[in-house]
Amino acid sequence: MLSKDYTGRNIIKTMAGSWFAGVEAFYLNIREIPREQAVDEAVRECIGRGILGDFLKKHRAEVKNVILTEYDREAHIRAEKKESWEDGVAEGRKYGMAEERERLLRSAIRVQRGKGQKEEDIIAFLAECFELPEAKARECYQRITQGEAL
């Protein structure tokens, strides 16, 4: 009978942890060696140490190909950083443009009210100047003027 420490779930966790530790050790070996020689030497060393030995023996060519041609960690990180930066810039511009539009709408309403314009005329003015459908212009007018002193 197995103790509670050796249930099927714990055995699977142990095996998975061992596999991931092997992958980590493999990549650590690659980083210690110049790139040109790294993959061959790392594969040989890992097989010699019993790190992912069976896997590396069966898939040696594929592993070498993936590491040398398909995946460049630094390039991947640079691309991810650039994409994140661009997303942040785009989001910032979008936010800034929305803030500026809101400021211009407030200003336009204030000026039109100062001229004594009626609500319907101001809404028509907003629709024309900001190229908004009349319903959207009305919604903006009501949102901005509702309970606020302009």
Automatic annotation (TrEMBL):
Protein name (Swiss-Prot/TrEMBL): Uncharacterized protein
Protein's organism: Candidatus Pullilachnospira stercoravium
Domain of life according to the entry: Bacteria
